[in-house]
Design a protein that fits this description.
Layout lengths: L5 H23 L2 E3 L2 E3 L20 H7 L9 H15 L2 E3 L6 E6 L13 H18 L11 H5 L2 E12 L8 E11 L3 E10 L5 E13 L5 E2 L3 H8 L30 E6 L14 H9 L4 H6 E10 L9 E7 L2 H5 L20 E9 L5 E11 L5
Antiparallel strand pairs: 1-2, 3-4, 4-6, 5-8, 5-11, 6-7, 7-8, 8-9, 10-12, 11-14, 12-13, 13-14
GO molecular function: acyl carrier activity; fatty acyl-[ACP] hydrolase activity
InterPro entries: Acyl-ACP_TE_C (IPR049427), Acyl-ACP_thioesterase_NHD (IPR002864), FATA/B (IPR045023), HotDog_dom_sf (IPR029069)
Function: Plays an essential role in chain termination during de novo fatty acid synthesis.
Amino acid sequence: MLSKAPPAATAATAMYNASAKDTNFALTHSRSIGSVSIRRRYNVFLCNSSSSSSRKVSPLLAVATGEQPSGVASLREAEKEKKSLGNRLRLGSLTEDGLSYKEKFVIRCYEVGINKTATIETIANLLQEVGGNHAQGVGFSTDGFATTTTMRKLHLIWVTARMHIEVYRYPAWSDVIEIETWVQGEGKVGTRRDWILKDYANGEVIGRATSKWVMMNEDTRRLQKVSDDVREEYLVFCPRTLRLAFPEENNNSLKKIPKLEDPAEYSRLGLVPRRSDLDMNKHVNNVTYIGWALESIPPEIIDTHELQAITLDYRRECQRDDIVDSLTSREPLGNAAGVEFKEINGYVSPKKDEQDLSRFMHLLRSAGSGLEINRCRTEWRKKPAKR
């Protein structure tokens, strides 16, 4: 307790006062992004007195030092205050109708790759972030599973079955993007989450994405149909009419991915999950699969092209002790023209402006058992001229 260590307490208080002063200035200082002035304010109240009994301690300081805050029933209230700070500083909120969520992000230097623009992994991570923030914003769980009350009672979670991302222009370091997301029902077995990415400076759409999620029993790891009770809990937060990020007929997000058979043209064998690849649920993060799939792309493509679209079918969970092989082959022209794989949802001949696209099929499999972990398809366009 602070009363048992006066010198340390005094130092901690002085440091906190200085930090609070600087934080208050920084957060109340208005800065402009594009043409909109964004203001966030968080007032820290800390009153010092020569008497420790009369000193008021802020909830945040109580969390840091373990001291019981004055006028607060328990540390639970302090923790709630701490979370609300993150919500207030986050540049995101529900839209006016409450049926979608928008959030702005500044691209950081560590999110930029060799092309001096955000990587596809950065884009995918931001999609996950805004999806999670949306789920928390409407009152779903904060444990990483975005579960409803009924789902938690029945030990049910959402898992990703499919992800499709298209990027028309990659943002650069310090660019500000705005991402909008919403959820809809997807038949009896899952839900669909879509995203629209815009350049916040001019409103230009720079990317779109869609995903399919299915329900799984957390204990048995078996898929389960979405019950009416669960559906009623989340449908109240969904658009009343069907809204799609990809409304075009026969769009690429619908195309099935045939299995890539051996021998593959390119491979990268023996990939091992790192500790940093694990998410808060101790499974390999969905974004890690993207990096693994791209590990076996030939260097000449990486040097001259940039990723335009990626589709991933998640087949099996990957655990921290699994060893993964990444296989890649160029997609035969017949695939894209609807000749060899007519059942693949209406492939059509590539348009003239698509002739320069390079397409690849990918397979992630367990090195030990040979079982499929992920199927992937990518499209690459030639790099634009340097800025």
